[in-house]
């Protein structure tokens, strides 16, 4: 896992939120302090951390949760959204059908390795890649590429006796039948200015769609300064952050580079050729926070449950009418098991087997049965005698056992709900449903 230290501590924060008995100002401040500590340890800029914590605190306390979310889930959502924004927000990389990519960066940043990773990546996406080896500064640079690309089964063009500009020219001629042309360049020059000059000259010839800066994430937040200066001099279209697997300062590097004009497009997460990922801040943060498919949850929560009805369930006697509403709410949310899996922390909640296994079919049957009750029966479950049950069974076309099962189910829920009302759980439809069923 990349950034495992950061991930570990932030996952801890999320766990703390999900298991909190209630959310108040003191608790939010504590959570914010935990997040600060995690980010600072990962070399995120102090000012950035302070600004981020201020927003998390303010939004957690002052914004009211969107319908369908509890206060706790609201805080998690705020943390998730603010961290995602820190990394550049929503971002989608579309696989092109034809592309020219030029990699730029100082020696040792991982250009050559990343060149081969990219070629292999595009090859897997169905494009025909060709690498052009234009690092003439480093002895054996060409051999390194040949060796790596043999492993990856991708083609390389290079020429040890020519200068970099001629190599690019010749390479482009050879590239006529290829879709993804990736240019590896030199990172060592006498001066930065010389390096910039050569890159500009090669770019003019190569005409890349993408000029990507390759940066070592061990640089921490200073990676941002490097990205700025290359961007200013050469005009980048993005960047690739490497060695995220071994870096304790990765958080600083990612957040700092995300703030520059050179958005992160890929990250390198290991030495192997397949250790390259498209950088998607939302997914990245979800993973760092140990949230699973949070996006899915947010979308579903928005489809919401009727707040008023849930309040009735909580405040009243828990009649069959309430049970009917509860069943419908569950049905609208989707299968209970899958909702639970999407909510951090909730996967640990134990549910009665009956509730977890409630199939659509069963829900429909229960609703049919309830609909066959008289109003009085629905509101006063106590009066259900065996002759009444017999009548309901006949009226709904359900078997006697099914009616009994429903009555038992109602009793279980009622008992659970009593415990819940006395319990420590926050209100809110989602939690009500989850916990009401416990
Ligand atoms: P260049 O000088 O910019 O071409 O850098 P190289 O591609 O030669 O890489 C320098 C070193 O970094 C090599 O030992 C690579 O194996 C290593 N490296 C590159 N990318 C990654 C990465 O994502 N993770 C790890 N752990 N090592 C990497
Ligand atoms: Mg190299």
Describe how the helices and strands are arranged.
Elements: H1 4-18, H2 25-41, H3 46-62, H4 71-86, E1 99-104, H5 111-124, E2 129-134, H6 141-152, E3 155-157, H7 164-174, E4 180-185, H8 192-206, E5 210-216, H9 222-234, E6 238-242, H10 250-258, E7 264-268, E8 276-278, H11 281-288, H12 294-302, H13 307-315, H14 320-333, H15 336-342, H16 353-356, H17 360-371, H18 375-379, H19 386-396, H20 400-422, H21 429-436
Parallel strand pairs: 1-4, 1-5, 2-3, 2-4, 5-6, 6-7
Antiparallel strand pairs: 7-8
Helix pairs in contact: 1-2, 2-3, 3-4, 4-11, 5-6, 7-8, 9-10, 13-14, 14-17, 17-19, 19-20
Bound molecules: guanosine-5'-diphosphate and magnesium ion.
Q: Notable features of this structure?
A:
8 strands; alpha/beta; 438 residues; disordered C terminus; 21 helices
